[in-house]
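Q: I'm writing up a methods section and want to include an example of the input and output format. Could you take the sequence below and give the corresponding predicted structure tokens, formatted cleanly so I can copy it straight into the document?
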Amino acid sequence: MINNRKIFHCLTAQQFNRPFLEEICDLADVIRKVANSKAGMEFLSSLLNHKRAMLYFVQPSTRTFLSFYSACQILGIKCAEVRDPRTSSEVKGESEEDTVRTFSSYFDLIIMRHFKANFAEKIAHMLDNTNRTVPVINAGSGKDQHPTQALLDVYTLRRSFQHRGGIDGKKIAFVGDLLRGRTNRSLALLLTLFDGVKQYFVAPPQFQIGEDILRYLEKVGVEYEVTYDLKQVLSQVDAIYMTRIQDEWDAEDGTTSEIDIEKYSIKKEDMSLLKPDAVLMHPLPRRQEISPEIDNDPRAVYWRQVRNGMWIRVALIAMIFKLDLYIHDYHIRSY
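A: Here is the clean output for your methods example:
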């Protein structure tokens, strides 16, 4: 999918490499600077005002949907949306594949969020074998992949550690429902591209990280630790990635979310255990796993994650349409 600076579909975290991560983060930083002025925003909004995007979000979403919608607006892309398949011809028995293939006749970009694993990959493969292929961005699929969330998480970590030597060598803990949380799975894979990162997985036994992730970490030689004791880990790590219990999957996989969530939550008094320069992350939405009292702590960066997500998605779309060098040139000439 990636060849030098080229990317067409964005489907899985595994498709990225370290040079691409550095490049897209650099581009996001440049875009933010360009967007600081009226002239810069007018420049950005002129880049793709001849393009149209379909946001096919048949799984509930607020942050990811609005993040992509805003990213498209910044680049001038006109958007349409389907957020309830009951409003489409799927109620008449049309297959999801035919529905999306229809979109490809009208739009230049398809951004999709779906409850089925590998659905975005399946659609991209299907469209690649038609005479009207368009880029597909996976905005979350099943319980396994959320590649653009992983991109924004890496971007947040890079900005948080920019004065501490970057992400290399850091210790990062994942906490919560790690088995069914696609955000931590995708980020765990991306972190293997950085040198000397140790990963901690803190979760109740029934929601511990999947064996497929652990086997992959072993395969690429990444150090990790599986534990059930959050308090023990808090003082050791440089970043904590909190997640909620994904109980929307309970009926499907036959599990139960009736666990003692207190053991996997962080309260204000727990922040004293963290390093002074550690960061606390969360992909949101949150429940009781992070106390709102912590929101104003400078180490709590989850609201920054939200904004970072919009900018990294602007950068991703710009790279898909091969505008990265053009944006860099504008920045050099104007600043």
